[in-house]
User: Fold these one by one.
Assistant:
Number 1:
Amino acid sequence: MNYEELTAAISPANPWRDKIQYYSTITSTNDVLKQMAAQGAPHGTVLIADQQTGGRGRLGRTFLSPPNVGIYLSALLRPACHPTELMHLTCAVAAAMCNAIEASAGFRPQIKWTNDLVFRKRKLAGILTELALRQDGTVDYAVIGIGINCCQKEEDFPTEIRGIAGSLEMVSSHPVDRSRVAAAMVMALENMDALLLTQKEKIMEQYRQDCITIGQQVQVVKGDTMRFGKAVDVDEEGALLVDFGTGIPEPVNSGEVSVRGMYGYV
Ligand code: BTN
């Protein structure tokens, strides 16, 4: 990846462009950005790294972040609102990342609820959003972290995730320029941020169109318990509505559970 190429692809009028920081290696863009946020970093600060030594995923998992093949990006938002107004944030980020990949890699991925980007049953990218609140309960900041597999070949993935992980290059038939994808990500996030609190319905409509989980039979895993049902919709808050056989869909929230298709990861 190349910082000059990356910023050259973003209009100078873009308010986030001059707040991009590039690292060849970092522990975790989310962790470093959270420290910067605590010290007052402004809305729109973006960290992009070529490699993470301590990349983190959802539900306490690690996120493999090898050098030169992926994009590890975090962006800082400081929306003036209550956390209840940001329930759709990860959905908004996922839809924005579909836009970014479509614009820069030439195909539109789908979303496995809540926020994995997939294509032909393989995970291409993951999203980890983290919120910090002020003492009065309003949002101090949100850190949005996105990791995208760009240039890996099948054999580059560890055996335990081979078959379920994929990269943009494995899907698209031509080489993928990581600087171009990273620039598209920044532009899509800035655009998403501008609409986040005013265009919630439109954002969720796009999310539902991209989400492949809707209509699927799913396994809902929470701790030691597993339930089977049919995902029928995603509500305005981003919860998956699952019919467990009662005919009355129940909301399932992403912080608590992992959802799988009946026959594997998707
Ligand atoms: C997941 O799939 O569980 C979410 C993965 C999120 C990974 C990104 S990479 C950039 C940012 N920094 C991190 O440590 N995690 C996120």
Number 2:
Amino acid sequence: MPVHCVDLHSHSQASDGTLTPAALVEAANAAGVDTLALTDHDTLDGLDQAFAKASELGMRLIPGVEISVTWQKRTLHVVGLNVSNSSVLSAGLHNLQVQRARRAETIAAKLQPAGLKNALERARHMAAGGQITRTHFARLLVADGLCKNGKQAFKRYLKPGKPGYAKVQWAGLGEAIHWIQAAGGLAVLAHPHGYNMSHAWRQRTVAAFAGAGGDALEICTGTTTPRQVDASAADARQHGLAGSVGSDFHSPEQRWLALGRLAALPADLSPVWEHPAFG
Ligand code: AMP
Ligand code: MN
Ligand code: MN
Ligand code: MN
């Protein structure tokens, strides 16, 4: 086990993770993680419970969030790390939460003709007060036998251009970075290889993120290949961005990925967790 095992991207039931925040922290601790960031989609709601469990276990928990962004008609995810209470951040997140609640109604209506019954009620029940995401609808499509797995549910119903897709105008790129930094946090462009973009578009995206004042690039995730790590490291060097690492863990059912199981950050990059703002 490495001296430090850092995992700076994970989800709980406050958004589309399947574990409660406390169970997530327990699982990370059992996996040997000593620094975990909880980064739920557009909410800080799981943090109090996660902090309580982390202090019980003597584990370091970094308060985080993963903000949904619309940039050039594409959706990007910007992770905020070490964010504290801030009216700017909470107001921004509140807005996104309203959008999520409205979008859930639209998605449910759009999936009814496909045979998904009572989708809104069931998605709300499944989310149990947490943010409703497309992942919840994917789980319903699988539960009703309309799709064989989540991947297929996205491919057939939930991706742009598919019958259950509903467009949302999320936060602006500069806006999300501003909210995070106003809360004393560091802004990280999440999973740069997770947007189904060409090489040229990925480079434009990283350049725009750096130009808008972003702090770091997520170099190693639970699913990145060595080539992707090399490509992202080159992008981070070119734009003077720090490097972050995070599994993007959602559920123990994702057998291909585990908490803390991450490639090492290339040695010449500055680790975001050693940044002064990290405390
Ligand atoms: P949302 O922010 O509600 O639009 O949902 C986005 C979430 O859906 C992501 O954070 C992933 O957890 C999940 N997701 C997106 N695309 C896929 C996919 N192709 N297969 C499985 N899960 C996906
Ligand atoms: Mn997710
Ligand atoms: Mn994401
Ligand atoms: Mn994520």
